[in-house]
C-alpha cells in the first residue's frame, strides 16, 4: 500500500474493558476505554455481566474515539478488532460490531490476536519511546497470560515459555484476596510493597523446567503462610501488611527475572520488551531497568496507557496488517483460545 493517509479504527473487547482507538499512519489520535466497575464487588470478572456491559458501552466508546480523533467514520480505511483470546461473550460483542461497521462502510475488516497486540504496542509512534529491533524477546504478563515470546518480525512470533497453570496477574490478585485487599489487588500490592521490606518473609519459588512458569503452588504457599501466622497472631496481616506485600512482589518478580535470564542465555537475544497489564507494576519495571546494568539487557517498556487492555494496540496491528493487505472475511469468528 503506497497510500500515506491511513485511518484505522481499533476495537478491543476481550475481557471487561470496552475500548476504541483511531490510528493515523502509526500515530494514535484517540484511545478511549470504558472500564466496568461492576466486577469489583465480586472479586473478579463475571463473564455474563462483562458481555452485557460491552453491549451498552461499544457504541458510545466508538463514537467518542472518532470524535476525539476529529474524523468521521467515512474517513476510515479499515476496522480492526480483537478476535481472541478472551471471554467468548465479550469477544462476540466486539466482533459483531466490527463486522457490521466494516460491512456498512464497505471497508476492509482486520482480525487481531490480543496477545500479538500487547507485543506490537511497542511499535506505536510515541515520542520518547524506542521501538525494539528484531529479533527481541517479549514477556507478556497479565491477569490471564504469562508468556515469553521470541519475536523475529511483526508477525513471526514463537512462544518459548508460558505458564502451565495460573497467570502472574492471578497470583497477585489471589494473594491480595487472601490479605483482604480489593480487586484488582495488583496495584494495591505494588503501592504497599514500596513501603515494606521485600525480604521480611521468604516464599519459595516454584521449580519449573525450561522457560515455563507456574504460580498455583505460590498462591497455595501464601495461603498456608497467612493461615499459620494469623492462627498464632490474629492481627498478623494488619501489623505486617506492607512487608507481606513487599515479600510477595519480590518473589513474583524474582520468578519472572530468573526466566528472562534463562531465555536471554538460551537465545542470545538481549533486547527485552514487556507488555500486558502486569507490566504496569513499578517493581517489575525497576527490575528490568536493573537488568540493563546487571545483565547487559536493553529493555523496552510501553507507555502506561498501552500496557493494560486497550484499543491502541489493536489499531497498530490493524495498521501493520493493512499495509500488507492482510484482511479478514466477513465469516471470521471469535476464538476464546486463540494462539500466537
From TrEMBL:
It comes from the Bacteria. Substrate binds at residues 140-144, 173, 186, 190, 281. Keywords: Acyltransferase, Cytoplasm, Iron, Metal-binding, Transferase, tRNA processing. Binds 1 Fe(2+) ion per subunit. Its cofactor is Fe(2+). One of its GO terms (biological process) is tRNA threonylcarbamoyladenosine modification. It is an enzyme of class 2 (transferase). Residues 27-315 form the Gcp-like domain. Its EC number is 2.3.1.234. It is found in: Cytoplasm. Required for the formation of a threonylcarbamoyl group on adenosine at position 37 (t(6)A37) in tRNAs that read codons beginning with adenine. Is involved in the transfer of the threonylcarbamoyl moiety of threonylcarbamoyl-AMP (TC-AMP) to the N6 group of A37, together with TsaE and TsaB. TsaD likely plays a direct catalytic role in this reaction. PANTHER family: TRNA N6-ADENOSINE THREONYLCARBAMOYLTRANSFERASE (PTHR11735), TRNA N6-ADENOSINE THREONYLCARBAMOYLTRANSFERASE, MITOCHONDRIAL (PTHR11735:SF6). This is tRNA N6-adenosine threonylcarbamoyltransferase. It comes from Algibacter lectus.
Amino acid at each position: 500500500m503506497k497510500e500515506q493517509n491511513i485511518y484505522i479504527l481499533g476495537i478491543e473487547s476481550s475481557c471487561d474493558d470496552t475500548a476504541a482507538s483511531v490510528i493515523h499512519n502509526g500515530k494514535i489520535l484517540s484511545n478511549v476505554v470504558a472500564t466496568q466497575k461492576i466486577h469489583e464487588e465480586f472479586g473478579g470478572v463475571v463473564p455474563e455481566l462483562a458481555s452485557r456491559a460491552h453491549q451498552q458501552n461499544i457504541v458510545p466508546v466508538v463514537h467518542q474515539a472518532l470524535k476525539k480523533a476529529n474524523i468521521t467514520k467515512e474517513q476510515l480505511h479499515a476496522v480492526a478488532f480483537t478476535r481472541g483470546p478472551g471471554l467468548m461473550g465479550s469477544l462476540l460483542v466486539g466482533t459483531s460490531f466490527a463486522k457490521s461497521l466494516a460491512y456498512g462502510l464497505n471497508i476492509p475488516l482486520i482480525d487481531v490476536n490480543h496477545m500479538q497486540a500487547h507485543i506490537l504496542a511497542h511499535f506505536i509512534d510515541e515520542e520518547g519511546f524506542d521501538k525494539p529491533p528484531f529479533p527481541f524477546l517479549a514477556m507478556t504478563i497479565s491477569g490471564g497470560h504469562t508468556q515469553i515470546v521470541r519475536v523475529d518480525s511483526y508477525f513471526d512470533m514463537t512462544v518459548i515459555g508460558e505458564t502451565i497453570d495460573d497467570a502472574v496477574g492471578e497470583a497477585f490478585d489471589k494473594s491480595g484476596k487472601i490479605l483482604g485487599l480489593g480487586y484488582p489487588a495488583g496495584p494495591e500490592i505494588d503501592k504497599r510493597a514500596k513501603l515494606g521490606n521485600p525480604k521480611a518473609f521468604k516464599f519459595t519459588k516454584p521449580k519449573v523446567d525450561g522457560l515455563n512458569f507456574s504460580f498455583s503452588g505460590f498462591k497455595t504457599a501464601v495461603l498456608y503462610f497467612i493461615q499459620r501466622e494469623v492462627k498464632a497472631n490474629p492481627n498478623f496481616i494488619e501489623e505486617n501488611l506492607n512487608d507481606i506485600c513487599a515479600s510477595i512482589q519480590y518473589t513474583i518478580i524474582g520468578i519472572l527475572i530468573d526466566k528472562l535470564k534463562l531465555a536471554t542465555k538460551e537465545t542470545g537475544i538481549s533486547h527485552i520488551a514487556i507488555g500486558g497489564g502486569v507490566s504496569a507494576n513499578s517493581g517489575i519495571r525497576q527490575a528490568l531497568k536493573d537488568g540493563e546494568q546487571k545483565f547487559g539487557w536493553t529493555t523496552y517498556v510501553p507507555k502506561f496507557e498501552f500496557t493494560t487492555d486497550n484499543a491502541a494496540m489493536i489499531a497498530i496491528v490493524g495498521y501493520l496488517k493493512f499495509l500488507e493487505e492482510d484482511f479478514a472475511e466477513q465469516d471470521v469468528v471469535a476464538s476464546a483460545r486463540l494462539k500466537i
